[in-house]
Amino acid sequence: MVSRRLLLGALAGLAAPALAFAEGDGHPPSLLTKKGRRTARALNHQAGDKAALDKALATVKPMEAEPAHAPETEAAPQAVSPDEALGRLKQGNAIFARGGANISLPTMLRVAELSKGQKPFAVVIGCSDSRAAPELIFDCNLGELFVVRVAGSTVSREGLGSIVYAVEHLGAPLIVVLGHTKCGAVGAAVDVATKHAELHGALHEMVLPIIPAVLEAGEKHPADLQDAAIRQNVRDIAGRLKVADGILAEKLEQGRLKIASACYDLTTGIVAFDA
Ligand SMILES: [Zn+2]
């Protein structure tokens, strides 16, 4: 049984970076946008103090350049619908799971074409596990998936910014939060919750955001805790993403974005999507 007392104690000392995104409101200004440049200029005039400026600019996150043809104030048009994008991922995984992955390395012509801009049809939030590479298990090529990967498939504030960028500026119509069987990060969170395992430093911080899912899974499926926690974790993250950012919420409301969760089976190669 999960010790809620122990975990509440552990969580009390947590800055919860991976959970904090649900409470945020704005986006970090990019130095590549007018707003970002204005911020930098304003700070420069205002302070005249290099230390203050350096400190303030440390919070400004440079982001990937937008395609030259896409005005920075205008959202990119959608090439495929959310359901079509989901269908492509399912079809790609079916090909992979049959052992017939048919992507080939892109030609240099294709590489050069992609240098002009990108239009990924899905954002995949995945675990860093080397056996769960999204491009391979969905049979996708360069330029097709915008991938954010951290062990345990959690989303930090910076990760949320990456996701919003892909949806708002690159027009991605689908976000999939992808977990996988035998996830070591979730296993570590289960050990912290049930065996009082102690992790140090950054490892501790990596695992803490997963613990609420372990607690919830422990109440519903105590007999198969790790597997249940893996599935609960991606469902929770997908649920939080739906309310984490105004841009995402607006596109969801308009039917121009879908957020799904799924689990990849390391043994069969099959991705099972939650309904
Ligand atoms: Zn994992």
- Sequence of secondary-structure elements: HHHHHHEHEHEHHHHHEE
Could you name the CATH topology? Beta-carbonic Anhydrase, Chain A
Cα-to-Cα separation, first versus last residue: 28 Å
In CATH's first tier, which class applies? Alpha Beta
Please work out how many helical segments DSSP would assign.
Answer: 13
Strands ordered across the widest β-sheet? 2-1-3-4-5
Strand proportion: 5-15%
State mean pLDDT (0 to 100 scale): 80
The name of the CATH architecture is: 3-Layer(aba) Sandwich
Low-pLDDT runs of 5+ residues are 1-74
Shape, per Cα inertia axes: globular
Largest sheet: 5 strands, mixed
The residue fraction in helices comes out at 40-55%
Tally of DSSP β-strands: 5
Supply the helix-strand structural class: alpha/beta
Structural features:
single chain, 275 residues, alpha/beta, Beta-carbonic Anhydrase, Chain A, 5-stranded mixed sheet, 13 helices, 5 strands, 47% helix, binds zinc ion
Which helices and strands appear, and what pairs or packs with what?
Elements: H1 4-12, H2 17-20, H3 34-47, H4 50-57, H5 82-97, H6 108-114, E1 122-126, H7 134-137, E2 145-149, H8 157-168, E3 174-180, H9 184-195, H10 201-207, H11 211-220, H12 225-241, H13 246-253, E4 258-264, E5 271-273
The protein binds zinc ion.
Produce a short descriptive summary.
With 275 residues, the protein is of the alpha/beta class. It has helices at 4-12, 17-20, 34-47, 50-57, 82-97, 108-114, 134-137, 157-168, 184-195, 201-207, 211-220, 225-241, 246-253; strands spanning 122-126, 145-149, 174-180, 258-264, 271-273. Strands 2-1-3-4-5 form a five-stranded mixed β-sheet, with helices on both faces.
